[in-house]
Design goal:
α3 runs parallel beside α6. The chain has one domain. It has about 180 residues and is mostly helical. It is built from 6 helices and no strands. It is about 65% helix and about 0% strand. Belongs to the TRAP transporter small permease family.
């Protein structure tokens, strides 16, 4: 039929690399933790308003789990090609030009995510270790005083490292498939 529509085909959503496939698989499992946050939030409402016995842990735990899933959502979006792009330009060019735009995108994305990963490393290192090098996780300072800030900063660093690897693998994929015709 020869219809060259700028609309994405289902194939565009599929993971391109083994790392993308792993991210999608792990993310689908982790998405079950949204159900966990709903359950503990419901528990908090019942305890607070029915039994007049509010918890000290639910809000902080639900915020940590939700924040963690939001962070993982970034690498999931990239793995499934659902990330933000300027479609006004991208959709108006030929498929061959899109390949070049993808390469430019991956180069800039790699540089940016690399710088973010470096900054996240510094923040997570400070959250995990004392200035003299002993392990001591930063805590929230609340009544619960959980190490959620340190864990969240470590997760941000880990996800940014995965994003760097994703950009490298996508860049390699785009360069090796640059000459192939649709």
């Amino acid at each position: 039929m020869g219809n060259k529509s700028p609309i994405q085909t289902p194939k565009d959503d599929e993971p391109k690399t083994f790392l993308d496939k792993l991210v999608v698989k792990v993310s689908h499992f982790l998405s079950l933790f949204f159900l966990f946050t709903v359950i503990i939030s419901f528990y908090e409402v019942v305890m607070r308003y029915v039994f007049n016995a509010p918890t000290t842990w639910v809000h902080e735990t639900a915020s940590f789990v939700g924040g963690s899933l939001f962070i993982v959502g970034g690498i999931y979006a990239f793995a499934t090609n659902k990330h933000v792009r300027v479609v006004l330009i991208y959709d108006s060019v030929s498929p061959q030009t899109r390949k070049y735009l993808n390469i430019v995108h991956h180069i800039f994305g790699l540089a940016f995510s690399g710088m973010l990963a470096y900054a996240a490393y510094q923040l997570s290192h400070e959250a995990w270790f004392t200035p003299w090098g002993d392990l001591r996780l930063e805590t929230s300072g609340s009544v619960l005083n959980a190490p959620y800030p340190a864990l969240l900063k470590g997760l941000i660093f880990l996800c940014l490292c995965i994003l760097v690897a994703q950009f490298i693998l996508h860049l390699i994929h785009e360069i090796t498939h640059l000459r192939k015709r649709k």
